[in-house]
Amino acid sequence: MLEVSKASKMLPNEQLRRERERRGWSREYVAEQIGVADPKTIGRWERGVAFPSSHFLQRLCSLFGMLAQDLGLFPANTLQILPGQQLTQKNRSFFAPVSPLFDPAAAPPLAETGGLVGQGELLQQLKQSLCSARRTAVLALNGLPGVGKTALVRELIYDSDIQQQFGDGTLWAALGPGPDVADLLGRWACLLGIPAAEMAPLQKEEDRARAVRAAIGLRRMLLVIDDAWKDDEALAFKVGGPHCVYVLTTRLPLVALHFANCGAIAVPELGEAESLDLLARFVPDLVSSEPGAARALVQSVGGLPLALTLMGKYLQSQTYSGQPRRLQTALKRLCYTQERLQLAMQQAPLECLTNLSTHTLSLEGAIETSVLQLEPAAQHVLALLSAFPAKPHSFSEEAALAVSDAPVELLDALIDAGLLESAGPGRYTLHQTIADYASSRLHDSAAYERMVEYFIKYVEIHEKNFDALEREASNVLAALQVAFEREMPMLLVRGVIPFSAFLEARGLYELAETHLKRAEQDARSLDGLVSLTRVLYHQEGIAEREDSRAPRSSSVS
By the 8 A CB rule, do 383 and 367 touch? Predict the structure, then answer.
């Protein structure tokens, strides 16, 4: 608190007293709200014999919701400066224009790819929401690990329109699993100019949050809460004033929903064209010279930006010498799931895309961070569900419970963790990268047996209902493939015979013929005369259909 010089003219602060009385507040109430120990101090400010420090000045403005000059707390009204004297920087900051505060924890936007790839439309949507909001805007981005949530926000905060809209700056809190919330709030307080001596006694998160809110006051700022894992940790950073906006990123849909309500936005994976564009930023010649291989790589990771970046950087390292042999070897390596999962790259300490404890980033590590937050039973169910074909295919809740032999609540746990996706009422899907990770942890062959048995029975029950078979066609084909690879001859024959009629009706003759040949071999090995007869009957029917579709040569007399 600054004492007014005796040489100064002491003028009562009628504006401060009038605003206090208009609200029906006592001096004791105001003192309690802003953290002043002695209520008499408020009276001294109103009489003009003392002046609040910048810290309490900001708290007063936040409490009243008014600017300093509107409360009469302006040097021209309450503090006469003698010739040769100056306001300290601490007290000048609330009267003079303040330079924008840009949190150094906010890493610069992506440079190596020439900016964000494939999310331009979503970026514009976020900009419009933040710049046109009449009230405090609250947005929360959620999505898979590696889908580009943090990269999107990094691009957003460096946008010139956003920086102009929030001219007082940006604060960034990188949370991750198990953050020290009080310490992060203390860092914000330091950036906002609150002396360490004033923050030291404030050990509770709530007290620190109040101090930060008072320091922000009426500033127009963008507050970013990155990589939140729990509701209470995210909400602890809702400390801005009426002119602040919030952008949160999280892997967990419920955290986004609870933080932002209708402002929760799911960040999608990239489409094929955008994925190829991102891959081409690292290996331009691959997309033009090996388009089939490039598309196969994109499909193998389901358009996930992190996976595409890791593969792109690896291929770049193998092609810079211009030797085709190295490219072909690298492409063969990327055909294997485990090789893709374990690709890694080093991150600059100050430019990390994630809040992992290491600066080495891999797809496996990014996914594992989410999986390790689950209970062991949920982790086991995730592994079992990898028996199903991955996205864009889906599977029913009934099938999931049959294969996992687990309660439905564990499916809910996987949904809430952002690892299992809803694909409509009673249906689910696993992203390709999540399925690959889960499959690498699946050591229970019984899961595949239950999956095959479930879908063989499904085909037998719905043999004449082609609509029902269409709905589960990808799962039935996967089950037949598993039965063939894992040598389940009886189940293979049981499934192929009724399903071949569906394949024939849909004109998938080549596919039907492949499965019928396998079933014929198994039926012969099992000495199943009835089954063999039925298999041969379907083979003959398909052969006749193919003959009827073959072009006839014209006879010349």
Answer: no
Distance CA 246, CA 278 (A): 29
Residue 8 predicted with pLDDT over 90: no
* Residues 276-329: tens digit of each pLDDT: 999 999 999 888 888 999 999 999 999 999 999 999 999 999 988 888 899 999
Percent of the chain at pLDDT > 90 equals 63
Confirm whether pTM is higher than 0.85. no
Q: What's CA 195's distance to the chain center, in Å?
A: 35
Largest Cα span, the chain:
128
**Alpha carbon separation from 317 to 103, 178, 293, 320, 327 (Å, rounded):** 34, 36, 17, 6, 9
Q: Which residues of 250-285 are buried (b: 16+ CB within 10 A; e: fewer)?
A: bbbbebbbbbbeebbbbbebbeeebbbbbbbbbbee
Q: How far is it, in rounded angstroms, from Cα 383 to Cα 342?
A: 18
Using DSSP bridges, classify how beta strands 138-142 and 169-174 pair: parallel, antiparallel or unpaired.
Answer: unpaired
Side chain identity at 147, as an amino acid letter? V
Q: What is the pLDDT of residue 550?
A: 57
Cβ 283 vs Cβ 312: under 8 Å? yes
Residue 18 amino acid letter:
R
